[in-house]
Amino acid sequence: AQLHYSVPEDRDPGFSVGDLAKDLGVEVRSLAARNLRLVSEGGQRHFQVDLAAGVLLLDSRLDREALCGQSPTCSLHLQLVMENPLQLHRVEVDVLDVNDNAPQFPKPEVVLEITEVANPGTRLPLEVAEDPDMGSNSISTYELSPSKHFALSINVRGDGVKMPEIVLEKALDREKVPVHHLTLTALDGGNPVKSGTARVTIHVLDANDNPPVCDPPISKVLLEENVPVGTLVTKLNVTDLDEGPNGDVEYSFKTSNNAPGKFTKLFSLDARTGEIRTKAPLDYEESSAYEIAVRARDKGSPAMEGHCHLRVELIDINDNSPEIVLTSVSSPVQEDAAPGTVIALIGVKDSDSGDNGQVRLQIAKELPFKLVSSFKEHFSLVTSGPLDREKASGYNITVRAVDSGSPQRATQKTFYLRIADVNDNAPNFSSPFDTAHVQENSLPGTSVFSVSASDPDEGSNARLSYSILDNGMQDAPISTYFRIDQDNGTIYTVRALDYEQDKVFQVPVEVKDAGSPALSSTAVVHVFVLDENDNAPNIVYPSVPKGSAFHQAIPALAEPGYLVTKIVAVDADSGHNAWLSYQLRESAEALPFQVERRSGEIRVAQALRESEDSHRLVVEVRDNGTPSLSASVVIVISPEENSVQDFSKSLDLPQPSSEDTNLTLYLIISLVSISLVSCVMFGLVAARC
Hints:
Elements: E1 2-8, E2 16-19, H1 20-24, H2 29-33, E3 37-40, E4 47-50, E5 55-58, H3 64-68, E6 75-82, E7 87-96, E8 109-115, E9 123-125, E10 139-144, E11 150-156, E12 162-168, E13 179-188, E14 195-205, E15 213-214, E16 218-224, E17 232-235, E18 238-239, E19 249-254, E20 267-269, E21 275-278, E22 289-298, E23 305-315, E24 323-329, E25 333-334, E26 342-349, E27 359-362, E28 369-375, E29 378-383, E30 394-403, E31 410-420, E32 428-429, E33 433-439, E34 447-450, E35 453-454, E36 464-468, E37 482-484, E38 490-493, E39 504-513, E40 520-530, E41 538-541, E42 549-555, E43 563-566, E44 568-570, E45 580-584, E46 593-595, E47 601-604, E48 615-623, E49 630-640, H4 647-651, H5 658-688
Subcellular location: Cell membrane
Pfam family, one: Cadherin_2
GO biological process, one term: homophilic cell adhesion via plasma membrane adhesion molecules
């Protein structure tokens, strides 16, 4: 929005210029919260904002003449910046002229000369009075004290300046009145009227009665601002009807109230030929026109002079590049910022005029931003699409300003915009399924496996913590078996594991980031317990109390190969640890019996003698583990004359109990489960590869 106020130049500091809160349509109490601040485009601070009242106040007394000189309008441009949301408002304050300056002549006394032969109607130009005020407060008219011979004439110059001239109305007689004393009064149009006076002394001279005449008296020249130094501007056309020295004209500059003496630094005048040339570079942006007053004086006695007025208007050339001003930049910006979010406020200006000063802004099309025109020479850089910090953490934005001149001039400014992270990515495990192995009976705190997850976010949004979820698949909570380091994802045992009780665990692991809201994902680690030879063989048959012996009768004439009995044993371990072998413990005497190593069958190895007594055998059952564990049983074999063995009864093997059946079933299920999990894992690995 753009606000417009006006204030007279003579107001004291603290004067209320305008009600900002009302004109902006915002509540007064919100101004401080929105950090309303004032930015002066000129660099000088003339105003201040009363945040409590919401009004624009005068900070220092203004002097229109010091601020704007002779410019017909005097405006001060301010910028109001408010945040939350970020807004920019332009304020234009017109400084109104007050009649605080009285007209003043360059010299308090003006001395003029006129020949006595001057004809009625002869004009004597006078110095123009100066009044820094403008408009109606500037010089309105001139008055001349009463005289029988002279009257006052006022001419209006091309730029509107009133030029007083004394006009001869009645012929002069030097012998009667050689000197005339008059008073010239300059009056302005203010209220009350202010005035200034100058004494005019007119000396009546004899002889040279024709002044130089400029043709035309007022002329205009158009000149490009980039012409080289020494370029001819014009040659004055001045004639003098007198002859000899009275007709020989010399030229000189005459200063005026329009930038007094300034043009003499830029232009040179040949006193003999009347040629006006440039003697310094011209700049349209500094001044678009110059008023040059030239005095043409002859060498008569007394000398007579004429006056030429030349207006030099400069043609603007595109000699200034545009200027880019970054008023405000909001960096960093959230990656979830909605399209249309204001990123920066950009101002642009070009000191040239017309098409040379018309500027357009450009940015690269591939960027997710666009420029929106706020008002004249001010733009907003807004988002035009979604942002993703994981793809681009920041942008180097180059703003290019190009004017419409010929040839075109351009400038550019680059600034970096950082994209702030938003927790929009959940952590991701390197694999949703993992397999680990741990030896049974390992000490609590043994490291089992380390899971790893990554999060493309940054900062707290990428700070991960790991935890174990309870899946309810075991009799006891999974947390009683395993724990996990929440920082590095390493899984440890909480207690010693028993292969015979649990052969495999499914450990669900959750990883969660520290964002708000937090995001998470899960993975499953299959922990296989490796068997350890921690169970000795258990002799199922024959079942005898510890320290007792099993008695077995056989025929006295049993032949070699005769099956005496069979030792049956089981081992709770698995694999090699459950492979059992049977053997006779060495004794001092040779025994006529042997034990099958794998089956545990005890057979007669050699024929028995008739009178042979009973034999005591110690059968040892040993597993294949490392270290190997064993069990033993004592069997006493007694040969009997009339013994006929019913092996089905004598062997009397126990039927497998339901517990043994269940153990076998569990072993089969475990083997099938391990095989299926292995196949699944191999399939996943193959698919990932």
